[in-house]
């Protein structure tokens, strides 16, 4: 057994917080993980983990060994020797998160293509609007929409999400069609709960930025549900282009305030330190970049 393999296994156990999860990620059996950790404990002359029935707890020595392990693996790779875990076809479990509606619309083909290319990798995908802690949960990649807060994660921009203000014709028969942003104060609105502030919408035009207070009739964190609510006439809604355009073209929704643009949102793929990125995660990131043009839908002019 290669000691570099053992060091890389130890690093993954520390990141995943579980022998079982590390085994799944590396495509190994749990006994192999145990054997590699035992080898390191013998080599370093210390205990690295305390295992209970419910939790794996690193010892104080584990934190010291972790830095040393990363330094050794870095030197090994910088010497031009291929990393064992990056040789050959990728394997193990790739855990990632994707925004719910965006993932449904864009990612089924990408998941299928990745599966065809790398059949030894098991995909564990969480569809969620929450910004999951990647390190804490052992998640290797995430797609995120919106302005990112400062963090230790690496972000690669892969597109822009255009948004449109829309309403159902039925709603506009009950309320005056807005001509200016301030007219929206008189309309019920369907709003996205994860944007802040929740009771304001912003628009941009040739005359500058316009901010208007709105009255939500429904608030949720799923763009598909917001689209259904708008189609039912529950309120005007700011929807991403993949939800709005097809319904506008079908006459089921009306594009409101076309001279006032809703600010677009950046689209990123994010991941922890790429120095420790697995081969499978790196390949999925590259596939997202390769397919990034599919995210650039043409919104209405």
UniProtKB/TrEMBL annotation:
<dbReference type="InterPro" id="IPR036388">
    <property type="entry name" value="WH-like_DNA-bd_sf"/>
</dbReference>
<dbReference type="InterPro" id="IPR000847">
    <property type="entry name" value="LysR_HTH_N"/>
</dbReference>
<dbReference type="InterPro" id="IPR005119">
    <property type="entry name" value="LysR_subst-bd"/>
</dbReference>
<dbReference type="InterPro" id="IPR058163">
    <property type="entry name" value="LysR-type_TF_proteobact-type"/>
</dbReference>
<dbReference type="InterPro" id="IPR036390">
    <property type="entry name" value="WH_DNA-bd_sf"/>
</dbReference>
<keyword id="KW-0805">Transcription regulation</keyword>
<keyword id="KW-0238">DNA-binding</keyword>
<dbReference type="Pfam" id="PF00126">
    <property type="entry name" value="HTH_1"/>
</dbReference>
<comment type="function">
    <text>NodD regulates the expression of the nodABCFE genes which encode other nodulation proteins. NodD is also a negative regulator of its own expression. Binds flavonoids as inducers.</text>
</comment>
<keyword id="KW-0804">Transcription</keyword>
<feature type="domain" description="HTH lysR-type">
    <location>
        <begin position="1"/>
        <end position="59"/>
    </location>
</feature>
<dbReference type="Pfam" id="PF03466">
    <property type="entry name" value="LysR_substrate"/>
</dbReference>
<comment type="similarity">
    <text>Belongs to the LysR transcriptional regulatory family.</text>
</comment>
<protein>
    <submittedName>
        <fullName>LysR family transcriptional regulator</fullName>
    </submittedName>
</protein>
């Amino acid at each position: 057994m290669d000691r570099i393999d053992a060091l890389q296994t130890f690093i993954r156990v520390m990141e995943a917080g579980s022998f079982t999860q590390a085994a799944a990620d590396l495509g190994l059996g749990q006994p192999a993980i145990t054997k590699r950790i035992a080898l390191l404990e013998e080599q370093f002359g210390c205990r690295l983990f305390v295992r209970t029935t419910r939790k794996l707890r690193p010892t104080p020595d584990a934190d010291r060994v972790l830095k040393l392990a990363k330094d050794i693996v870095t030197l090994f790779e910088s010497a031009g020797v291929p990393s064992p875990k990056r040789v050959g076809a990728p394997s193990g479990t790739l855990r990632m998160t994707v925004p719910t509606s965006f993932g449904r619309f864009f990612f089924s083909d990408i998941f299928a293509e990745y599966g065809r290319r790398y059949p030894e990798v098991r995909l564990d995908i969480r569809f969620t609007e929450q910004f999951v802690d990647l390190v804490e949960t052992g998640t290797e990649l995430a797609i995120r929409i919106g302005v990112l807060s400062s963090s230790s994660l690496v972000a690669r921009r892969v597109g822009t999400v255009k948004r449109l203000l829309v309403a159902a014709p039925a709603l506009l028969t009950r309320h005056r069609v807005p001509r200016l942003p301030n007219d929206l104060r008189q309309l019920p609105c369907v709003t996205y709960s994860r944007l802040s502030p929740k009771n304001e919408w912003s628009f941009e035009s040739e005359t500058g930025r316009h901010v208007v207070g709105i009255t939500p009739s429904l608030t949720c964190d799923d763009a598909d549900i917001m689209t259904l609510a708008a189609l039912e006439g529950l309120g005007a809604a700011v929807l991403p282009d993949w939800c709005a355009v097809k319904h506008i073209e079908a006459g089921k929704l009306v594009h409101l305030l076309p001279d006032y643009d809703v600010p677009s949102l950046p689209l990123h793929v994010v991941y922890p330190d790429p120095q420790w990125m697995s081969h499978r995660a790196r390949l999925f990131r590259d596939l997202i970049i390769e397919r990034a043009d599919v995210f650039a839908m043409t919104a209405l002019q």
